[in-house]
């Protein structure tokens, strides 16, 4: 969707579940689609004030909840603001305005969830809900056993003590870590506290959603099962009400 809130007519029909973009183009050519009182033509743009008809039946432009997984490369900034580039709007071609659930630093990569469901996003980002996030971390040198034990118990950063975490699969200078909170640059700060510098940070899981099979720079819509699982852990039932 562009800054004026409008989208191409073929995207509009696809977005609201009427048909595919290819079918929409064909229906427009066949004269089956109207915008108000006139027949639509390829390239027409429509907004929320327009009434679109297919075969004289109005298209119901209902809000469709969207949940997306994106494999963020390093260098992309986790914002939808046009003040910084490259941002999420620059790199994700999607007709609806989505916003990220949490953040990944510009220098970090991996799994980022995006949605247009504000209530669900709020529940998933609330620290008190202690939702798990898993990362693959590389440092300039291997973590010692003493540092691992101390880090798992909690680290004093940002005027607070981090929650207990789990570190496993240590191999050379890399390790996996599971957090249940999301303080600003938390992993980097935890490592810096013990004199370690993070050289690579890659998120591979957010609660029940994983990065498996998703190529860098690509996105996919979550499956019904994944959406259902996220709603359950967020304390919401299928229709979005409190469970």
Please supply descriptive tags for the structure shown above:
243 residues, alpha+beta, 28% strand
How would you sum up this structure, described in words?
The chain is α+β, with helices and mostly antiparallel strands and 243 residues long. It has seven helices and 17 strands. Strands 7, 8, 9, 10, 13, 14, 15, 16 and 17 form a nine-stranded mixed β-sheet that branches. Strands 3-2-5-6 form a four-stranded antiparallel β-sheet. Helix 1 (9-15) crosses helix 2. The radius of gyration is 22 Å and the shape is elongated. The two termini are 33 Å apart.
Structural topology:
Blueprint: E1 7-8, H1 9-15, H2 21-29, E2 33-35, E3 38-39, E4 45-46, E5 52-54, E6 57-58, E7 67-72, H3 88-91, E8 99-101, E9 109-115, H4 118-125, E10 133-139, H5 145-153, E11 156-157, E12 160-161, E13 166-171, E14 174-179, H6 186-193, E15 198-206, E16 209-210, E17 219-221, H7 224-233
Parallel strand pairs: 9-15
Antiparallel strand pairs: 1-4, 2-3, 2-5, 5-6, 7-9, 7-17, 8-9, 10-14, 10-15, 11-12, 13-14, 15-16
In short:
The chain is of the alpha+beta class and 243 residues long. The protein contains seven helices and 17 strands.
| Number of distinct helices | 7
- Which value, in Å, is the CA radius of gyration? 22 Å
**SSE string:** EHHEEEEEEHEEHEHEEEEHEEEH
Helix content: 10-25%
Number of strands: 17
Overall pLDDT: 89
The coarse silhouette is elongated
The structural class is: alpha+beta
Low-pLDDT parts are 239-243
* Beta-strand proportion: 25-35%
What about the largest sheet?
9 strands, mixed
């Amino acid at each position: 969707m562009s800054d004026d809130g409008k989208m191409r007519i073929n995207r509009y029909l696809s977005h609201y579940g009427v048909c595919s973009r290819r079918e929409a183009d064909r229906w427009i050519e066949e004269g089956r689609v109207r915008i108000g009182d006139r027949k639509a033509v390829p390239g027409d743009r429509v907004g929320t004030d327009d009434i679109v008809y297919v075969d004289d039946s109005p298209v119901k432009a209902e809000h469709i909840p969207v949940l997306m997984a994106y494999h963020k490369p390093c260098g992309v900034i986790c914002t939808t603001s046009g003040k910084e580039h490259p941002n999420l709007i620059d790199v994700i071609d999607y007709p609806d305005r989505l916003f990220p659930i949490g953040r990944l630093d510009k220098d970090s990569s991996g799994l980022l969830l995006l949605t247009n469901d504000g209530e669900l996003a709020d529940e998933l980002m609330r620290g008190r809900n202690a939702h798990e996030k898993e990362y693959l971390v590389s440092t300039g040198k291997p973590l010692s056993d003493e540092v691992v034990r101390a880090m798992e118990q909690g680290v004093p950063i940002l005027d607070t003590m981090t929650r207990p975490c789990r570190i496993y699969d240590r191999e050379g200078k890399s390790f996996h870590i599971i957090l249940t909170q999301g303080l600003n640059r938390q992993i980097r700060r935890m490592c810096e506290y013990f004199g370690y510098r993070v050289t690579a940070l890659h998120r591979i899981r957010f609660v029940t959603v994983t990065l498996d099979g998703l190529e860098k720079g690509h996105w996919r819509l979550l499956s019904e099962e994944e959406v259902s699982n996220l709603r359950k852990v967020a304390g919401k039932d299928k229709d979005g009400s409190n469970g």
